[in-house]
Design goal:
By secondary structure, this protein is α+β, with helices and mostly antiparallel strands. The protein has 21 helices and 35 strands.
């Protein structure tokens, strides 16, 4: 009987819908070879019922199988994972035998490994490590795997003196099936969740990029480790393209440009919060005014909700369970626990609830430039793009189910219009469906996902599925921009919510006189204004379009004799609502022009004796060495028309 059971066949289903019987215990590589020899050569892993597995893993039950090739995005991710765990880690141990390995995950576009070394590394050490990695890859060893139980795993890594691995194993709730990966014909092995390439011949082109410090487990009470970063791509051309983007991104870094243009600064006494300087705040206010004008035209009502709210509201809304770890908490003299708001939605529901609402009142579009606080980990903070205090261009649309599609379409049109005004032409859309941990019934989620998908299709937006990444209360659309150097930024969101109005008891009276819960659309276009400004600083490399530039015009005098004329010009421009600066210093005009051009001022007006006597100005535009002569009264008319064009 046991023998018959062992011979039992299993049914394998493929992505194209085809099915085929195989012997129980068949491995992924054998399935790939059964399909075609060319697929077998390109195969690096497999998905079994949606879960990544090594090609060497056995399949013992009926399953849905997808073979992962090195040419796919998943294959690239597995290659990066193998590089960090099997190549970088081994190179470090070869060069620094007393080093201790911690963790080595993949990250966007690359990987890193945290290690403890006797002597700290610097970026100058990277070529040596990279050279060792290339030697390892050139050998092209096969990657093998074995399973051990907890005690065996502890013994293996204790004998090697790998204290961080021992720490990981001890803390694991797992008792069996710890995966140990090792390279054939070597004594190197490592603990890893996998999967890995079947051999190192599949490794493409890679480069180590930098060394940084990182505390073990992200805790400053623990040892400071060395984090070695790298990037890896399918081929040399892809690697070069990415390195060029990195080089260009370095030049455009919003932190450097922000400092140079005197827009903002950050300091340790207010970690994760921005000190906006006069020029940076002008950009902030200009963007806020622009968005406000767009929202007013679409019938949004602007509101302002409290910064600090009792925990009871957050518990009722469900945010306490989900976001408590990221909330800044405080206590009043009555010992009530209060939280600085991490988002605006519960406050908007409370405004909606004031007074009886009829179906005739819907949709209600409620907007707020809401200042929010989230206790982001210090290691995740990045300039003004990832902060703890930020302002959202937030809005919530309360509507009936029949209005969902129309409101979603209007929002998508508005979003595209605004992105276009800022110079972004490429737009990707991700549809994020229900996460594992969520509020609301499956029936409610079915309805919400169906409604949002209908809106996407009617808006004629191409989208890709982002499984399990919806908000805890509903599915969402994520709008991803592509910037001037090809990087993607996720900014706008549209979230469909059938849950929060019910939890907070927000209702309206329908046409039959019955109480109903409205549908709540959570939406943002820019997202965080701080992050958006960081993005556009890098998008424009500090050369803002005239309507956004903190200083639109600088007036430069050639001699002191021209100061009164320059002051009159400055006053006329300011009276016309134009942001100007006057430079009447006793410096050479060439020096002044270079300095203000370096500050990315779009237009420099030069005034001397000739301009004074003819009531004209000499105009020099940023990036243009030639001057244009124009009567001053004509220039004002011309410039104001130019400002009207975003």
């Amino acid at each position: 009987m046991d023998n018959l059971e062992n011979q039992k066949n299993i049914l394998i289903s493929f992505p194209d819908g085809k099915k085929k019987e195989f012997s129980k215990g068949i491995k992924g590589l054998e399935i790939a070879g059964n399909i075609s020899k060319s697929l077998e050569k390109k195969s690096v892993a497999m998905k079994v019922n949606g879960e990544f597995k090594d090609l060497s893993d056995e399949i013992n039950n009926d399953s849905k199988i997808e073979i992962v090739t090195i040419e796919s995005e998943d294959g690239l991710e597995i290659m990066r994972h193998t590089l960090t765990a099997q190549v970088l880690a081994k190179a470090i141990k070869n060069l620094y035998p007393k080093s201790k390995l911690a963790i080595g995950p993949t990250i966007e576009n690359g990987f890193y490994y945290d290690v403890l070394l006797e002597k700290p590394l610097s970026n100058e050490d990277l070529p040596k490590i990279e050279k060792e990695m290339k030697k390892i890859v050139q050998v092209g060893n096969k990657i093998k795997k074995s399973y051990v139980n907890k005690q065996e795993a502890l013994k293996l890594f204790s004998e090697k003196g790998e204290t961080y691995k021992v720490d990981i194993i001890k803390e694991s709730k797992q008792e069996n099936n710890f995966q140990i990966y090792f390279q054939e014909n070597t004594n190197f092995f490592d603990l890893c969740y996998g999967p890995h390439l079947p051999n190192l011949k599949h490794v493409g082109s890679f480069k180590l990029t930098k060394v940084a410090g990182a505390y073990w487990k992200g805790d400053s009470k623990n040892e400071m480790l060395q984090r070695i970063y790298g990037t890896a791509w399918k081929n040399e051309d892809d690697l070069k393209k990415y390195l060029n983007i990195l080089e260009e991104a370095e030049k455009r870094d919003h932190r450097k440009i922000g400092k140079k243009l005197e827009l903002f600064h950050l300091q340790e006494e207010a970690v994760g919060s921005v000190f906006w300087h006069d020029k940076g705040w002008k950009i902030f206010l200009e963007i806020e005014a622009y968005i406000r004008k767009k929202l007013n035209a679409q019938g949004y009502k602007e509101v302002k909700t409290p910064q600090i709210i009792d925990r009871t509201l957050w518990e009722k809304s469900g945010h306490w369970t989900k976001f408590k770890e990221n909330m800044f908490l405080a206590k009043g003299d009555d010992n009530k626990v209060l939280a600085l708001k991490p988002m605006n939605c519960p406050g908007h529901v409370e405004i909606f609830k004031q007074g009886l609402k009829s179906y005739r009142d819907l949709p209600i579009r409620m907007a707020e430039f809401g200042s929010c606080h989230r206790n982001e980990p210090s290691g995740a903070l990045h300039g003004i793009m990832r902060v703890r205090q930020f302002t959202q261009d937030d809005a919530h649309i309360f509507c009936t189910e029949s209005q969902v599609t129309e409101e979603s379409l209007k929002f998508c049109d508005l979003l595209r219009e605004i992105y276009k005004d800022f110079g972004f032409k490429e737009l990707k859309v991700k549809f994020s469906d229900r996460p594992k941990e969520r509020a609301g019934t499956d029936q409610v989620w079915d309805k919400a996902e169906k409604a949002l998908l209908k809106a996407v299709k009617e808006a004629k937006l191409k989208y890709e599925l982002n499984p399990g990444e919806g908000a805890f209360y509903g599915p969402k659309l994520e709008f991803v921009l592509t910037d001037a150097i090809g990087r993607d930024w996720q900014c706008g969101t549209l979230q469909m919510d059938f849950v929060l109005p019910e939890r907070l008891e927000a209702t309206y009276i329908d046409e039959n006189g019955q109480k109903k819960y409205p549908v709540m659309l959570h939406r943002a276009i820019l997202g965080s204004l701080e992050r958006w400004i960081g993005i556009i600083i890098e998008q424009y490399s500090g050369k803002f379009p005239i309507w956004l530039a903190p200083t639109q015009i600088t007036i430069c005098t050639i001699t002191e004799k021209n100061c009164n004329y320059a002051k009159a010009i400055d006053k006329s421009l300011k009276d016309a609502g134009i942001r100007t600066e006057l430079d009447n210093r006793n410096e050479k005009i060439g020096y002044k022009i270079r300095e203000h051009s370096d500050k990315k001022v779009p237009i420099i007006l030069v005034v001397g004796d000739k301009e004074n006597s003819t009531e004209s100005v000499s105009i020099r535009r940023l990036g243009n060495k030639d001057f244009e002569q124009m009567k001053f009264n004509e220039f004002i008319k011309f410039f104001r028309k130019e400002l009207e064009i975003k």
